[in-house]
Design brief:
Elements lengths: L2 E3 L37 H8 L9 E7 L15 H9 L7 H11 L4 E4 L6 H17 L8 E5 L3 H15 L8 E3 L6 H10 L2 E4 L1 H8 L7 H5 L1 E6 L7 H20 L5 E6 L5 H9 L4 E3 L9 E6 L3 E5 L5 E3 L2 H14 L4 E5 L2 H18 L7 E4 L5 H13 L4 E4 L14 E5 L5 H8 L9 E6 L4 H8 L2 H4 L13 H14 L14 H10 L4 E3 L2 E3 L20 E5 L5 E5 L1 H7 L5 E4 L2 E9 L4 E6 L4 E22 L2 E21 L5 E6 L5 E11 L2 H6 L4 H18 L11 E6 L9 E6 L7 H7 L1 H14 L24 H13 L3 H6 L1
Parallel strand pairs: 3-8, 3-9, 4-6, 4-7, 5-6, 7-8, 10-17, 13-15, 13-16, 14-15, 16-17, 20-24
Antiparallel strand pairs: 1-29, 2-10, 11-12, 18-19, 20-21, 22-23, 23-24, 25-26, 26-27, 26-28, 28-30, 29-30
InterPro entries: DEAD/DEAH_box_helicase_dom, Helicase_ATP-bd, Helicase_C-like, Helicase_put_actinobac, HRQ1_WHD, MZB, P-loop_NTPase
Protein name: DEAD/DEAH box helicase
Keywords: ATP-binding, Helicase, Hydrolase, Nucleotide-binding
Length: about 800
């Protein structure tokens, strides 16, 4: 029997809520809130109040105090137009920070540059000053439209926010700077104006891939004058998404060359390891890095918070901690009552909805005017809903927002006092990015990481050095992934015939891949170039977000109203027939999932339960790329094929998590070809580890779960990007085997990173299991919220002995490299 642990979209990330009433120590009317009176409480004082009450202080496992930092000024480079400097001064900014001036210098010299400094360090101004100055120069040309610039953001929310900021900054410059957003929400009647007249276009890689590049003749005047391409929050372009964006940027460079332009790339990133290397892989160009942060920073108080154990028992009788969702809802409630403006970042869409709903209910008990000042924000909302929430957060109308990572990136939400993270966000880069949303006006800030009942979260709240004494991760992306590269070569050929001279631009795998595309009749060679000859759009061959397939529309059956969308990869497990679906605080039951038309029909209902999908998974080895002996054990990396099928779902009580019943499902299997790391052990090693045959399945399964939970410490992924399978006797290896694989076609680089850091990765896995205070295994160590086998069997003690024996054979040079 194979035990599996699946990547994103297969199971709901939210475990059942364990909700307990909260006694608020502060109760005040809305017009008496401290913030309304102009009082901004210190982060230490706010945390002190949160820690009062029975047992609450014990939940804070560590408090990190980051002292304030003084800033260092410089002068703007002389080529910056005086009008731009005056506009910046009018916005209340005197002299730039040193890193802003250095970034502008490189940009003006025509050098691509990445500025990788802390949140709220003024990265936007670093690239805006040279861009606006250049656009202003171009506006004075006697003929033509003048210079243009393109801004790319990973989210629509960030692009809209940047558009507002640019409009405010450039108001004194009149009509010389014509900034406009061009994305899926832009009305059709506005798009032609943007193409013809805008000189600063803000968009996202998706629109560049599907709209601008395929229609480049209509953008010819814009592209001919393109001087700068700004890539904001570039650290988010990792894994499969980053690999796709890297190829989109190569297509952009190729089309620009066709029109005689060679734009300079200006990249902004949160603090990252080797930002120049990552930026060069992303753009395909040499990039200079600016990493010394010379901006001032207020005091940051960062608390690690572990929810308490409850009296409840979960699967296999394991003790259960209070959920991070319920705990975060309490904190958001208490912070709103104190008048502390807060964003709570949540991993799942459902979690954001539930936290907002619980907080609203509890705030109603304090003051009936307060529930309207807390809301949810997530992907899948309609554009007008997102914009309204963004405006309310900007204006201060909202005191609290439960948001998914759709709000994480760069939005300048001035005036926030606190951030609560409902679970570790997957990487240290994201952790600091989310925490940095508070204190952006220079005031002190409070950040709280609430641990989920999860191996990695539990490890981190008890090992704070892993967060506060370690550099952020290296960005992992693989533009040469054939599943990524192939559709972009087709898209490039559709844009302009693909010539032999273009092959080097797209990477070393291109030369081998083009003949394969020709054999599959996706490309046709005529004379010295390859052409796209099919009727369908080549850009539609791939979804650059790596999801694959059309999003499933969630439609209210009675009215035909579109509620939102669900990614295709998540549909089988989240909007199957009988699933509970939440949208803006309302619950719906899925009556029908039509996979052919990508529609889920729902009706409003209030069931007293949540639903969790169950599935089966099989894995086969296609090719072993690398194999290393670990004593008698083997550590391997290569290509695999994973077959998964959702077969049923459980209904669980909302409060206790008690299973009410299981219903069968008839959904088709899905196949994934990807990359994996795996390890095998021998019968002699099992004897040395005292792992008896009856305990073998549980030992392997527990080690697999925990290793997936810990891997995000070593690769820029989270457990929802990866999957796993453990098999007591695998037909390809003929040995007990544990697999961890990338949850994306062709791989995303995570399994390869796991292979190269295996000694440290598996050592941390063993430590996390051994350090957990439970007796036989729990969600904090070896149980998984997305296990397709109901976390059965699991054997904690046998897993520790097995990993100890495995690691004893790790070569010294591998351990050092790891």
């Amino acid at each position: 029997m194979a035990f599996n642990h699946l990547p994103a979209g297969v199971h709901d990330a939210l475990s059942p809520l364990s909700v307990r009433p909260v006694t608020h120590s502060v109760s005040m009317a809305h017009n008496q809130l401290p913030q309304q009176a102009g009082i901004r409480p210190s982060p230490r004082a706010v945390l002190g109040r949160l820690g009062t009450g029975a047992g609450r202080g014990a939940r804070i496992t560590h408090t990190e105090h980051l002292p304030p930092r003084l800033g260092s000024h410089a002068d703007w480079p002389s080529p910056i137009r005086p009008e731009v400097i005056e506009a910046i001064s009018a916005a209340g900014i005197g002299r730039p920070w040193a890193h802003q001036a250095r970034t502008a210098e490189h940009a003006l010299r025509g050098e691509s540059v990445v500025v990788a400094t802390g949140t709220a360090s003024g990265k936007s101004l670093s690239y805006l000053a040279p861009v606006l100055s250049t656009l202003l120069d171009g506006s004075e040309e006697p003929s033509g439209r003048g210079a243009t610039a393109l801004y790319l953001s990973p989210t629509k929310a960030l692009a809209a926010d940047q558009r507002r900021a640019v409009a405010d900054l450039t108001a004194p410059l009149g009509t010389a700077i014509r900034a406009a957003v061009y994305d899926g929400d832009t009305p059709v009647e506005e798009r032609e104006w943007v193409r013809q007249y805008a000189n600063y276009v803000l968009t996202n890689p998706d629109m560049l891939h599907r709209g601008i590049l395929p229609g480049h003749p209509r953008w010819s005047s814009f592209l001919r004058a393109l001087r700068y391409v700004v890539i904001d929050e570039c650290h988010t372009y990792r894994g499969v998404f980053g690999s796709h964006v890297a190829q989109v940027l190569r297509r952009l460079r190729r089309v620009c060359a066709r029109y005689g332009s060679s734009p300079v790339f200006l990249l902004a990133s949160a603090t990252a390891a080797d930002p120049a290397v990552a930026a060069s892989r992303l753009t395909g160009l040499p990039v200079v890095e600016i990493t010394e942060d010379s901006s001032p920073r207020g005091e940051v108080v960062f608390a690690l918070w572990e929810p308490p154990l409850t009296e409840l028992h979960g699967e296999q009788g394991a003790p259960v901690r209070r959920t991070a969702t319920a705990e975060t809802a309490d904190l958001l409630t208490d912070l709103a009552v104190q008048g502390v403006r807060t964003v709570a970042f949540v991993r799942s869409r459902r979690g954001a909805e539930l936290i907002a709903l619980i907080a609203q209910e509890r705030l109603a008990e304090v003051d009936r005017s307060l529930p309207d000042r807390v809301a949810a924000y997530r992907g899948g909302y309609l554009p007008e809903e997102r914009r309204a929430l963004e405006r309310a957060l900007h204006s201060g109308e909202l005191l609290g927002l439960a948001a998914t990572t759709a709000l994480e990136l760069g939005m300048d939400v001035a005036g926030l006092d606190a951030v609560v993270l409902a679970g570790y966000p997957g990487t240290r880069a994201s952790l600091w990015q989310q925490a940095g949303r508070a204190g952006r006006s220079g005031q002190g800030a409070l950040a709280i990481l609430v641990a989920r009942d999860d191996p990695l979260d539990t490890y981190l709240v008890h090992h704070p050095d892993a967060l506060f004494r370690q550099p952020v991760e290296s960005t992992v992306l693989d533009p040469d992934n054939p599943y990524v590269l192939a559709p972009h070569l087709c898209a490039a050929a559709a844009e302009l015939p693909l010539t032999p001279a273009d092959l080097e631009l797209f990477g070393p795998a291109t030369e081998e891949l083009v003949p394969q595309l020709e054999q599959r009749k996706l490309l046709r060679r005529r004379a010295t170039a390859w052409h796209w000859t099919r009727r369908e759009r080549a850009a539609d061959l791939t979804d650059i977000r790596g999801e694959g397939g059309s999003p499933v529309q969630v439609v209210e059956a009675a009215t035909g109203r579109l509620l939102g969308t669900v990614d295709s990869s998540a549909a089988h497990s989240t909007v199957h027939e009988g699933a509970v679906h939440l949208h803006q605080g309302r619950s719906y039951l899925v009556k029908q999932l039509d996979l052919d038309d990508s529609v889920a029909l729902v009706e409003e209902a209030s069931p007293p339960y949540s639903t969790t999908a169950r599935d089966t998974t099989a894995i086969s080895i296609l090719e072993t790329t690398t194999e290393i002996p670990w004593g008698d054990a083997r550590l391997c990396f290569g290509s695999v094929e994973v077959t998964n099928q959702v077969v049923s779902f459980l209904r669980r009580k909302l409060i206790t998590g008690e299973v009410l019943g299981e219903s069968k499902l008839d959904l088709p299997p899905r196949t994934l070809r990807t990359r994996a790391v795996w390890w095998t052990v021998t019968e002699d090693q099992l004897e040395d580890a005292r792992v008896h045959p009856q305990a073998l399945g549980g030992a392997l399964h527990a080690a697999e779960h925990a290793s997936i939970g810990i891997l995000p410490l070593f690769a820029t992924c989270d457990r929802w990007d990866i999957g796993g399978v453990s098999v007591p006797l695998h037909p390809d290896t003929l040995l007990p085997t544990v697999f961890v694989y990338d949850g994306h076609p062709g791989g995303a680089g995570f399994a390869e990173r796991a292979f190269h850091t295996a000694a440290r990765w598996l050592t941390a896995t063993r430590e996390a299991i051994a350090a957990c205070e439970c007796e036989a295994g729990c969600p904090s160590c070896i149980q998984s919220p997305k296990c397709g086998n109901g976390n059965d069997p699991l054997d904690k003690r046998a897993a520790i002995r097995l990993l100890t024996t495995l690691l004893a054979g790790a070569p010294e040079q591998i351990a050092a490299a790891g």
